[in-house]
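Subgroup meeting minutes
Present: P.N., E.W., G.H.
Scribe: E.W.

1. P.N. recapped why we're keeping a running log of single-chain structure predictions: easier to compare across weeks, and new members can see raw inputs and outputs side by side.
2. G.H. added today's entry (246 aa).
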Amino acid sequence: MSHTQIKPLLNEVLHHLQTDPHRRTSGLSDFILGAQDGLVNVLGVILGIAAATNDARIVLVAGLATTFAESISMGAVAFTTTLADADHYQSELEREYRHIQEAPNLETQEIREIYESKGFKGKLLEHIVETVTANQDVWVAVMMAEEHQLAPIDRKQAIRAAFVVGTSAVLGSLVPLLPFMFLPVATSMWASVLVTALVLFGIGAYKARVTVGKPMRSGMEMAAIGTVSALAGYLVGVILKVPAVP
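Output recorded in log:
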């Protein structure tokens, strides 16, 4: 291969791997789930506690308790949910193997319809159907991906999801707590809302940059939704405010 042929190929490889690489969305969605949940839930709790008591120590205790309880709970939910998806995949996989044994003609017709819908016709379509159905493992894999829209999941993915969700929940939860460690309660409440809104905006904008959408719009939406949700905690605190001790 000549130098003139190598250079365009190298440019394509660099574009494919560095400039515009494919990205794994599962880790991103797990991170966003944990971070957003931690940010919004803890902000709502500490705003309610701060409005009700005006005591920084109580706010920090309540916030930290919520932080670790929330992160463990979110991680456990991510783990069990991913395992449930894995179990669902396995049950459908076994069912497909039974179907191609007990109803091969029907399953063959489903393969034909799948590729016919993609535009294949005539001899080419029949050749594809024969090739796919000649191997049971390939046959079942096609049915799982094309008919059921399911992908295999293993236990390592469940552990990874639990770790990412739990860790991001802790990190997100600590953000609204930071102002209460250094500032008076009244000032901390406003600072906490502002910092949390900025972080939520950053998460939303980043999500749009690595997937699709407009970063500014995505960031504003996430910041608005999260902040309004958290302010519900503040309203509860105001309504149930603890009376000052004379």
